[in-house]
Amino acid sequence: MIAERNDIAFYMKLYPLPMHKDAYGKSKTIVCEKSLELLEDAYNQKPVPPATCETTAVDETIQLARKLGINGTPAMVLPNGVLVSGYKDAATIKDMVDKAK
To answer: Which of 35, 45, 48, 99 is least crowded, fewest Cβ atoms below 10 Å from its Cβ?
Structure first.
């Protein structure tokens, strides 16, 4: 989608849900290492080492999600501020963005 539409950007925030064991720690590691490889490992249920830095980024995301009323993943905020929860395919996302402009 990014190659087709330069007017659409995705900002990924790691929002560890409490039902996923070790998600918080894994999220902190991924943020510390700035590693897409570790992100993929976490999604694929592979081991992720402990965080090597102190960061508040994950806690800030949790607070932001609560403020916005986000309680699950994935979630998107469209250009008009509308919150969309759940998986959407590329065509649906493009359509929603076009309608939100």
So the answer is: 45
